[in-house]
Amino acid sequence: MGIGKFIFNRVVAKKTGGKFSPGMLQSVLRLPIILPLCLRLMRDERVPLPLRASVIGIIAFILSPIDLPFDIPIIGQYFGAGMVVVVLEWFIKLAPAHVVNEHIDALGIEKRVPKRSV
Q1: What pTM was estimated for this model as a whole?
Q2: Is 43 helix (H, G, I), strand (E, B) or coil?
Q3: Is residue 51 part of a domain?
Q4: Going by C-beta distance under 8 Å and a sequence separation of 6 or more, which residues neighbour residue 78?
Q5: How would residue 53 be classed by pLDDT, with cut points 50, 70 and 90?
Q6: What's the number of domains the chain is made of?
Q7: Is residue 92 part of a domain?
Q8: Which burial class, exposed, middle or buried, applies to 59 when counting CB atoms under 10 A from its CB (0-12, 13-18, 19+)?
């Protein structure tokens, strides 16, 4: 582990009283990077409809106001956002590689999101 990551983990643990894991916070911070890519993939007809529909269904379930575990103030919101990031990351991995790479190029995020091998 690099010194920067070590310091980041210590600061997060200290500021949150150990209630949030640094990994969860990093995944929430990744959301603005992958969200535009996922929105473009959702609109692309080359991505299978069942895959797109399942992602929408899972995210709707995670963000549903009926879920009791997410009713814990602040923690529940971070947990929900962290789970959304996990679902979106899997969506990117399961979508056709050539389609994902095309959208990564179009968005200009090659440095932040690695291209998939075709």
Answers
A1: 0.66
A2: helix
A3: yes
A4: 20, 24, 25, 28
A5: very high
A6: 1
A7: yes
A8: middle
